[in-house]
User: What shape does this take?
Amino acid sequence: MPIGKAPKRVDRHALQQYATLLLAQRAMSSGEMRQKLKLRALSAADVEAVIEQLVEYGALNDANYAAAYASARKENQGFGQARVLRDLNKKRIPSELARDAVSATFEGTDETAMIEDYLARKFRGKNLPEYLSDPKHLASAFRRLRTAGYSSSATLKVLRKHSSAAADIVEDDEN
Assistant: This one.
């Protein structure tokens, strides 16, 4: 599709086929699907009808999608709760479902152990105490861990194990 050209508007049957094609490519939340279908639909009623039909068939299930997404982000990328929740909100998952999925996924998880694993993976090949003795590297590691979704208190606790300079970092508000 050329840049700047609006997508062709289609009827309900073609919209249903388009939705099926999108789901064949990757799983989506109903919010993401709704957004994509609105760009192609002749009428808004067609979008809601197609969404309802996909939910009825079980092709769209926000609760299952949120649980699988949260689990994958935790296990594969090693992200913390705040990052996973933020990502689910970007995926247009309802807030309550996102919170439930994240809390179920992270239940019984030791955040400090996750931070240790994340640091070991992201800074492999570096002597962490020596590397983090530089204030610039320490601040960079702190920001990186906060962006990865870990709480500031747990992040500081782990960084203090590796560097005495971490005591100088002031805790910010929890997100």
